[in-house]
Amino acid sequence: MDGLLDGSDQFACMRNAIGVMCDEWDMGYRKLSFEKEGKSCGILIRIISVVKSSKGGPSMILLFKSVNLEALKSASEFRQWSRSSDGEQDVLRPHHSNSVLEQKLLYRLLSINAMRVADAYRPDRSDFEHDFTLSFIRPIGPLTMSDLGKLNAEAGCFICGSNDNHLRCTGCQSIIYCSKACQKEDWRRHKPLCNSLAGGTWTTLDFSPTNNLFTSQINRFHRSDQQLKIKKPNEGPPPNIHSDQPFLIKIQVNAFGSLVYDRARSFEWNVFSAEKPDTWAACHDMARTGFLGAKCYRWAKRESDWKLSICVDRVPDEMPKW
Prior knowledge:
zinc, single chain, zinc-finger, five-stranded mixed beta sheet, alpha+beta, zinc ion binding, MYND-type domain-containing protein
């Protein structure tokens, strides 16, 4: 499919398209199109206004329509709309999309938002815009690590996605199937991981807090409007969302401490070498086997409120996307 094999990030391209719309608004232009060079399909957009949302941040109100640009360019109504005499800036501004998939993502986003527009809101339209769809768009950004964790939560059978008869692999307890048939189909792929966990060395580490620090984590994936969660000293143990099942953790270390957390960020534990030298040393030894000797992924089980049992000598068969 166009755009899937060229290495481009289609979501990043869509965010760039939204940035283009904002730039056009700032320059005083209101009409624009997104089209793929060599393709006839495209999206026509007229920006109506930009307002402040009740939840904070701007919302761009607009009309849009998916069209066949090649067939439309010969229509007098389109030519009149794209070259209105209301002013020099009331002209259509064409922009090239990186791929058809980028257009589909943008169209899908606008279509979803259109369902949230109040029926009572009816802005003025030209005759050409009678079948345009009213929608809005807000700034979007990359998913946070916490969001990714929610999306990667177990959603059922690994093969078919069914939520019936959750049967965990008896060898490693790390994966769910709905039937013996699905388990058999996946065995060739799953066997190396299963054998790895079954024969791994597990050790229990203590992560109970020993300092009086207020802590908060922030990285380049945090949104500027995202409220930071500040953890207070002696706040109490984090919830155990994994029960007694294995899950992946990420371990990051530096010369003074280490950070251990799960994909959903249900817990984030800081360990300082001066306070828990044994736990820090174990984390440091594991992290040295990973990326740049500074971070790694391991399977773990929650042993108690502040303790994890970690498979120290086995790595995931595939690197997680977080």
